[in-house]
């Protein structure tokens, strides 16, 4: 039998086996290991905070870097998207926007949806994952951050004016029409101007985040009514972003496709890493 040591880790006594594997050159002694383990969550949390802060700074640099040439490109891209959709009879945002704008009640409902759920549900799902589904948190959060990062690159490379800014196309800026409720009146976008990029339509990060929330909750929760809500949330978001004239149908398709692509890559890498760890583990 190997020699064992009993140490305290986070207030709990843990028995560490000091057999052959503990005498590998460079392996930490049990006491040093016990002192290091409690600090791991803090280090991981700090690393993730740095990543999120980096994403915010990246977004800010993109927002602040929109010049007149980029604005011209944004309007040209928006016009091109409309031409393609009109040719394929896929401009669903037109009838949706006109239908919603014709009703004060519908306008208020979609405005509340657009300016609230997107900014509250995503962080709540991240917190829920970290606290209640820790085993799935790393992969799920990596998918979310990867999708966000690539979408920000898309905003930089392809600035796109949303339908509500396309003069002469007949769209109604629903968010602006309902701005007496308290959101930003001049742009139609919710929240202060400092966090809003007016030409970040392609791909739709709004819809990518909603699809991420819905997929995560649907896959990790077994209650039927919760799963119904998980499916309904992204679907309602797809309708709302078009009804408010904030996104084209192709923006939604691009956002969801980006999420699926990133999810596939992250899951593939995670499986390969797990397989390597299993192969390296002692029999």
Automatic annotation (TrEMBL):
Going by the UniProt record, its keywords in alphabetical order are: Membrane, Transmembrane, Transmembrane helix
The way this protein sits in the membrane is described as:
Multi-pass membrane protein
This protein's GO CC annotations: membrane
Which parts of the chain span the membrane according to its record? 36-56, 137-158, 200-221, 228-246, 252-269
Per the UniProt record, the source organism is Trujillonella endophytica
| UniProt superkingdom | Bacteria
Q: Where in the cell is it found?
A: Membrane
Location, primary (coarse class): membrane
Q: Which InterPro entries match?
A: Aur1/Ipt1, IPC_Synthase-Related
Q: Where is the Inositolphosphotransferase Aur1/Ipt1 domain?
A: 80-263
Q: What is this protein called?
A: PAP2 superfamily protein
């Amino acid at each position: 039998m190997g020699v064992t040591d009993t140490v305290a880790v986070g207030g709990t006594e843990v028995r560490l086996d000091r057999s052959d594997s503990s005498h590998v050159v460079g392996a930490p002694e049990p006491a040093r290991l016990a002192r290091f383990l409690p600090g791991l969550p803090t280090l991981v949390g700090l690393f993730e905070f740095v990543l999120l802060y980096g994403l915010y700074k990246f977004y800010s640099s993109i927002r602040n870097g929109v010049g007149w040439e980029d604005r011209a490109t944004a309007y040209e891209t928006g016009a091109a998207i409309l031409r393609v959709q009109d040719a394929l009879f896929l401009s669903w945002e037109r009838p949706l926007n006109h239908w919603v704008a014709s009703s004060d009640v519908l306008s208020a409902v979609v405005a509340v949806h657009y300016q609230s759920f997107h900014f509250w549900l995503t962080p709540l799902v991240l917190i829920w994952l970290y606290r209640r589904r820790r085993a799935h948190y790393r992969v799920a959060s990596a998918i979310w951050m990867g999708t966000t990062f690539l979408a920000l690159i898309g905003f930089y490379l392809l600035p796109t004016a949303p339908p509500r800014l396309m003069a002469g196309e007949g769209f109604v800026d629903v968010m602006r029409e309902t701005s007496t409720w308290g959101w930003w009146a001049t742009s139609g976008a919710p929240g202060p101007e400092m966090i809003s990029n007016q030409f970040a339509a392609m791909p739709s990060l709004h819809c990518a985040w909603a699809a991420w929330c819905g997929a995560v909750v649907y896959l990790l929760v077994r209650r039927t009514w919760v799963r119904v809500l998980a499916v309904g949330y992204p679907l309602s978001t797809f309708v709302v972003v078009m009804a408010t004239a904030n996104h084209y149908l192709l923006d939604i398709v691009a956002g969801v496709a980006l999420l699926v692509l990133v999810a596939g890559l992250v899951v593939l890498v995670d499986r390969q890493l797990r397989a390597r760890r299993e192969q390296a583990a002692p029999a």
